[in-house]
Amino acid sequence: MNLAALTLHEARQKLRKRQISAQELTQAVFQRISDTEKSIHSYITLCPDTALEEAKRADTLLKAETNPPTLLGIPIAVKDNFLTAGIRTTCASKILHNFIPPYDSTAVEKLRAAGAVITGKTNLDEFAMGSSVENSAFFSTRNPWDTSRVPGGSSGGSAAAVAADQCIAALGTDTGGSIRQPAAFCGIVGLKPTYGRVSRYGIVAFASSMDQVGPLAKDVTDCALMLETIAGLDHADSTSANQPVPQYSASLSRDIEGMRLGIPKEYFVSGIQPEVEQAVRNAVHHLEKNGVVIEEISLPHAEYAVAVYYIVATAEASSNLARYDGMRYGHRAHARDLTETYLLSRAEGFGPEVKRRIMLGTYGLSAGYYDAYYLKAQKVRTLIKKDFDDAFKTCDAILTPTAPTTAFKIGEKTEDPLQMYLSDIYTISVNLAGLPALSLPCGFDSDGLPIGMQIVGQHFDESTILGIAYAYEQSTEWHKRKPRL
Amino acid sequence: MRLTGKEIQQIAMLARLRLTAEEEARLTEQLDHILQYMGKLNQLDTSGIEPFGYIVETINPMREDRVTNQAKAEALLANAPAKENTFFQVPKIIE
Question: Residue B10: which domain range?
Answer without folding.
Answer: 5-43
